[in-house]
Amino acid sequence: MMWGSIIARPVRSSLSVVAIAIQVVLVLMIAGLTTGVISEWGKRVEGVGADIIVQPPHSSIFFAFSSAVMQETLGDEIGALPGVDEVAPTLILMDQKNFVVVYGINYKRFNALSRGFLYRAGRPFESADEALADDIVAQTRHLQVGDLISLLNHTFTISGIVAHGKGARFFIPIETAQDIAGAENRVSMFYVRSKGDTEATRAEILQLTPEDTVRSMPEYMTLMNSSNLPELKPFIRTMVGIGVVISFLVVLLNMHTMVLERTREIGILKALGCSRLDIVKMLLGETFMLTLLGSTAGILATFLTQAILKETNPGLMILISSRWVFQAIALAMVGAAAGAVYPALRAASYDPVVALAYE
């Protein structure tokens, strides 16, 4: 009976399914984008090869918002500490036009933090107007070695394309970055590699410069999730709330109209002996089936969108966890059930005599 009622009203049922699917897509895409961007940024920082990060006091964990306030000479002092193996001063700039992070680096010292850059093509930069691009941004923007690109209102020649995962999308000489930023002999942060004892080396650095923020890489990685970023929580909750409201309103309207259309049918069922609980269970059962269909459609649409975006924009990371899939389904159930309760209770309260006489 429930399935027959859904098929008998294909347009109305389809609208409910679409509304619920939109809610699921909205929840999963918002959660996936925020989680994916944060996770991907953390992995890129980890891939630099350092095990300690030194920043100015009260710095953001997102280095794109860092200021060049640290003296570059501090790097020599850090490098002289017994537990330090390598130090790489880094000036971080955000290209607002292209919306990408650019690292100004001392190539030799930055490259020495790990096994070094893995080149897909080209060579290291050798002049002030040359830059390295990672393979993701090169694929997205169809860059080749020798191409010209405008970064930070400055024209650079791409000298090499490297494997992604070294913090930034573009790398330029630190002297050029300092000239562009007007930050002579200043940097945003230092990447530090210890000789093995990370915590002891961290303590040495803190003793040298107690006012600065000194984090080990494991500590930094624990911060790179949405639960440690209170600014994101209101945004995610708002988007989730909008999705639940959409589902609630559409299901409420659909079920209310459906109850009016089926007044005589409900009267017949009650006259045949159906109880109020039977009527409520029947209508909520229909809502449950519509919600399952909408949730399935929403999940499929989300993964299809994820695949399309991955092809068109490889740099955009969308991380959809099974936890959020179940949460999206649960939220869809809550919104749909809330929208169906009032129409179902109203239908159950009909007097069978009045309902049978309804035209």
Secondary-structure-derived class: alpha+beta
Mean pLDDT rating: 82
Low-confidence stretches: none
Shape: elongated
* Overall helicity: 40-55%
Strand content: 15-25%
Care to describe what's here?
This protein has 359 residues and is of the alpha+beta class. The protein folds into two domains: 2-39 and 230-356, no CATH class; 57-211, no CATH class. The protein has helices at residues 2-8, 10-46, 74-79, 107-111, 135-140, 174-181, 198-208, 217-223, 232-261, 263-271, 276-312, 322-348, 352-356, and strands at 52-55, 70-71, 84-95, 100-105, 119-122, 130-134, 148-151, 154-162, 170-173, 186-187, 189-194, 213-216. Strands 1, 3, 4, 5, 6, 7, 8, 9, 11 and 12 form a ten-stranded mixed β-sheet that branches. The protein has a two-stranded antiparallel ribbon with strand order 2-10. A hairpin with a 2-residue loop joins strand 7 and strand 8 (154-162). Helix 1 (2-8) crosses helix 11, helix 2 packs antiparallel against helix 12 (322-348) and helix 9 (232-261) packs parallel to helix 12. The mean pLDDT is 82.
Task: Compile the SSE list and pairings.
Elements: H1 2-8, H2 10-46, E1 52-55, E2 70-71, H3 74-79, E3 84-95, E4 100-105, H4 107-111, E5 119-122, E6 130-134, H5 135-140, E7 148-151, E8 154-162, E9 170-173, H6 174-181, E10 186-187, E11 189-194, H7 198-208, E12 213-216, H8 217-223, H9 232-261, H10 263-271, H11 276-312, H12 322-348, H13 352-356
Parallel strand pairs: 4-9, 6-8
Antiparallel strand pairs: 1-11, 1-12, 2-10, 3-4, 3-11, 5-8, 6-9, 7-8
Helix pairs in contact: 1-11, 2-9, 2-11, 2-12, 9-12, 11-12
